[in-house]
Amino acid sequence: MIRVLLADDQRLVRAGFRSILGGEPDITVVGEAGDGAEAVRLARRERPDVVFMDVRMPVLDGLEATRRIAADPELSDVRIVILTTYEQEEYVFAALRGGAAGFLLKDAEPAELIHCVRVVARGDALLAPSVTRRLIADVASRVPPPAPPPAASTLTAREGEIADLVAGGLSNDEIARRLTISPATAKTHVSRVLGKLGLRDRAQLVIWAYEAGRVQPGWLG
């Protein structure tokens, strides 16, 4: 069972998400938070697999709530998805830096929401592939990095290639097809890269690749 926490200050948004997810046999909503502080408290109490986090909330905003959850070693398995609109790109990028696993547009279709939960719960891919590359590339080019990114000197040539493909928004299956390797091997490479660079997940690997200058906007075409 995939355990989901909903954090949004709009009751109707939470009710809509709960209604959609509640019909799935492998997903259960374990809590709802109307502000960021409550989201952090519920995350610590319920230990959800996935948290849907709005950016603008009272008491504590979604960015700080994301940072606090991601920084808690006891919540290392919790994956946070930022709920966003096209007008909030800078917030999304900051959230990814802070430890969010990805993002989902608030006007996403129900099927996208359900797919999002399952993808993030297994840690397999960055979300919203239709806009991920544009958003990351555009915002990364305008927002200065807070500190030098981890060095890539510990990566092998193949691992560096894998890192660049993840930064381009490719899933494990897509990486496997491009490099003519098995999906299991691709997943192993990604895990090894994350470990060597000390990164939490694929989302942070995307940020690292852009800040390290390894990939440029539009490089995958």
TrEMBL record:
One of its GO terms (biological process) is phosphorelay signal transduction system. CDD domains: LuxR_C_like, REC_NarL-like. The keyword DNA-binding applies. Keywords: DNA-binding, Phosphoprotein, Transcription, Transcription regulation. Residues 148-213 form the HTH luxR-type domain. The keyword Transcription regulation applies. SUPFAM superfamilies: C-terminal effector domain of the bipartite response regulators (SSF46894), CheY-like (SSF52172). It holds the Pfam family Response_reg. Residues 3-121 form the Response regulatory domain. This is LuxR family transcriptional regulator. It comes from Actinoplanes awajinensis subsp. mycoplanecinus. The lineage of its organism: Bacteria, Bacillati, Actinomycetota, Actinomycetes, Micromonosporales.
